[in-house]
Specification:
Blueprint: H1 2-5, H2 22-32, E1 42-50, E2 57-66, E3 74-81, H3 90-105, E4 110-116, H4 120-128, E5 132-143, E6 146-156, H5 157-161
Parallel strand pairs: 3-4
Antiparallel strand pairs: 1-2, 2-3, 4-6, 5-6
Bound molecules: coenzyme A (COA).
């Protein structure tokens, strides 16, 4: 993951800085693998995406479940695929697997994503999975010398379950 995460192409629409060294990345992964936010209010689910054929790491998926009433109702998702694996269908497959888990196993009702309005690839991915734009957030962030605006996209469990069958795993 470290080598792939150093590619600046990943951060065009993301405010996060790339990891500087292995120890820092390992610390970050240990922290998020704890499974809960420090105040205990949110459940953190994180996955590294690996290719079946050779177990190569191709990206990561993230889900933050609001854990009120001991039951996840709403989940905020995030994802990235390392640039050398772009446009091979990995994000579609991995986000699909993540949503299956969140809606079926975790009992989430609504999935949300926050996407920079310029991030055409991510917006097309989510539209293809059935997400719809719910809000536009003006001046959501400021990074790389520019102000970024975001769309909040949503998908509910009923809509997800009524989707056509997905292609086989690779
Ligand atoms: C967005 C991202 C996850 C897409 O990953 P990917 O594995 O290349 O996506 P897939 O190959 O599964 O593409 C699925 C669909 O998404 C859309 N898509 C993906 N990348 C696209 C791009 N650069 N331009 C236009 N559409 C794109 C297409 O509709 C594509 O279907 P198609 O290939 O049949 O046309 C990847 O570019 C990425 O990690 N970007 C940097 C981090 C990031 O922006 N994360 C999202 C934060 S909200």
């Amino acid at each position: 993951m470290l080598a792939g995460l150093r590619d600046p192409a990943l951060y065009r629409y993301l405010p996060d800085p790339p990891p500087t060294d292995l120890a820092g990345l390992a610390r970050h992964y240990r922290r998020i693998a704890g499974g809960r936010s420090p105040d205990g209010a949110d459940l953190w689910c994180n996955w590294i995406v690996r290719r079946n054929a050779d177990r190569q790491c191709v990206g990561s998926m993230q889900a933050t479940i609001e854990a009120f009433a001991e039951r996840g109702e709403r989940v905020l998702i995030g994802y990235m695929i390392l640039p050398r694996f772009w446009r091979l269908g990995y994000a579609r497959e991995a986000v699909t697997a993540m949503l299956d888990s969140l809606f079926d196993a975790q009992g989430c009702q609504v999935a949300e994503a926050l996407v920079d309005t310029r991030n055409a690839g991510s917006l097309a991915l989510l539209a293809g999975l059935g997400f719809r734009i719910a809000h536009r957030i003006q001046d959501a962030d400021h990074f790389a010398g520019a102000t970024s605006h975001e769309y909040e996209l949503m998908l509910d469990r009923a809509r997800w379950r009524s989707r056509p069958a997905r292609p086989a795993s690779r």
